[in-house]
Design a protein that fits this description.
Blueprint lengths: L12 H4 L1 H18 L2 H6 L3 E2 L2 E2 H16 L14 H29 L6 H15 L6 H8 L4 H29 L6 H30 L1 H8 L6 H23 L2 H27 L4 H12 L3 H12 L4 H26 L15
Helix pairs in contact: 2-11, 2-15, 4-9, 4-11, 5-6, 5-8, 5-12, 5-13, 6-14, 6-15, 7-8, 7-13, 8-9, 8-13, 9-10, 9-14, 11-15, 12-13, 12-15, 13-15, 14-15
Length: about 350
């Protein structure tokens, strides 16, 4: 099995400086909202079922290319060495959303209670929960490459998580937001998953099958996919400009909140990475399985989180702002974890690949 490796020489230019681009988009968006308010006012007219059509289009631009990269035929390899997958599934779905809820609640309601009003804390917590309920599906390929992870195994980890999202995302979010006293209609959550997971996932699968069948897998991997290399990042940056054009007033009124939200998100990222990474060490798995296992749980499918936050709470909501903070902190924190993983290879067996039990 092959996987298109867009970062064979390391992290790409756009990804490497993503935090800078996000900060620039924040500034541009806020300036537009402040001095050219007619733009967000005009775009706000295009809305259906509380979903911003312009933002939805940009989110599809983000998500569709990454869905094409996942080869679901790889799932047949699950039986070959499932231990790394068990670690990934356990960390992502049985631990991560609940530790995020606990950590974010503690900081937002207790540690920062003098800085954040309870109503705002509730929406920030909702954004944090949305981030935690969606493990990474795209950038993990970058982190896997930087740690010399097993590309075939990483694809299996991502593919199975994409399928689990379809089943687990809605009930986990519904449960955690429910105990947070945030009312979220089932139909809105389900519609969000259909719009931003099912449709692009189906489109990605169909595209991959058709192009591979007509032109060959090598053409699809080496020539077709690279055409979309920057689409996800460009879509993300344009979405952020729109979000901050809508959110300018919220941000200007609470600039300190960006830093305060980032603190529990960062702590959670380190916690989940080490839970997965050390579990792999305990199971005596090879480093090229352990590193991606840690990365996929530590990083987030922030494109989905942003999309669902907008659908549930609106483009100007504090919840949407919290998911954007997740984007802002993602790259610098994950690069630190990449360095940690690369400096601790000696913790793991010398064998550089997953055992082949055929």
């Amino acid at each position: 099995m092959t996987i298109e490796n867009q970062n064979s020489n390391g992290i790409g230019f756009f990804q490497k400086y993503l935090t800078i681009w996000v900060a620039a988009c924040m500034i541009i968006g806020i300036l537009i909202g402040k001095f050219i308010p007619v733009i967000p006012e005009f775009l706000n007219q295009f809305e259906y079922a509380k979903v911003s059509i312009p933002v939805a289009i940009l989110i599809w631009v983000m998500i569709y290319p990454m869905m094409m990269k996942v080869d679901f035929h790889s799932i047949v390899n699950v039986r070959k060495d499932p231990k790394g997958l068990y670690v990934t599934w356990t960390a992502n779905w049985l631990i991560k959303p609940f530790t995020m809820y606990a950590i974010a609640s503690f900081f937002l309601y207790v540690v920062f209670r003098n800085f954040i009003a309870p109503d705002l804390a509730k929406e920030y917590l909702a954004g944090a929960v949305l981030l935690a309920a969606a493990p990474c599906t795209a950038m993990v390929f970058v982190w896997s490459t930087l740690t010399k992870g097993n590309p075939a195994y990483t694809v299996v980890q991502v593919a199975t998580n994409d399928l689990i999202i379809l089943i687990a995302f809605v009930p986990i979010v519904k449960f955690l937001l429910g105990i947070s006293d945030v009312s979220v209609p089932w139909n809105t959550l389900i519609l969000s998953v259909v719009l931003f997971v099912v449709i692009p996932l189906a489109g990605g699968i169909v595209t991959r099958v058709l192009i591979s069948k007509n032109r060959g897998v090598e053409y699809f991997e080496k020539q077709f996919l690279p055409k979309f290399d920057n689409a996800t990042i460009v879509g993300l940056l344009l979405t952020l400009i729109l979000l901050f054009a809508f959110q300018g007033e919220v941000f200007l009124n609470n600039p300190l909140h960006i830093l305060l939200i980032a603190i529990p998100l960062t702590i959670q990222t380190f916690l989940i990475f080490f839970i997965s990474y050390l579990a792999c060490k305990w199971l005596k798995l090879s480093h090229d399985v352990a590193a991606p296992a840690g990365m996929i749980g530590a990083s987030n499918f922030f494109e989905l989180s942003v999309a669902v936050a907008i659908a549930l709470f609106g483009t100007t909501s504090p919840a949407a702002l919290a998911t954007v903070v997740g984007v802002l902190t993602e790259v610098p924190v994950m690069l630190i974890l990449v360095k940690i993983a690369n400096n601790t290879k000696h913790w793991f067996p010398a064998k550089g690949s997953v055992k082949n039990k055929n």
